[in-house]
Design goal:
111 residues; alpha+beta; Alpha-Beta Plaits; 29% helix
Amino acid sequence: MGRAWRIEYEGALYHLMSRGNDGQHIYLNDADRNLFLETISEMSERFKVDIFAYVLMSNNYHLLVRTNRANLKKAMQWVWVVICSRGGIKASWFKIMHILRSYPVISIEIH
């Protein structure tokens, strides 16, 4: 069974996360962390994605983002292509990491 389709639309809020398998570290050092942060910053500008919050831990990360265009898949694909092309993360690194998970955030307006 394939994974559920990712819901994408303009103005959507998402909680994005990814973690290492069996608790393995996904960042080897501060340079890896900085490369990730620099790349998501570039992605934010390029794809018009607002980043409201992030948490980087040794074995996972979480992002709270809003897509101003329906382009989450393209934006995150670009992030990982850029990180790999800049040599920050080796191909073997992906063996320790789950596929990106995204959860639409449901907003409730209270009057």
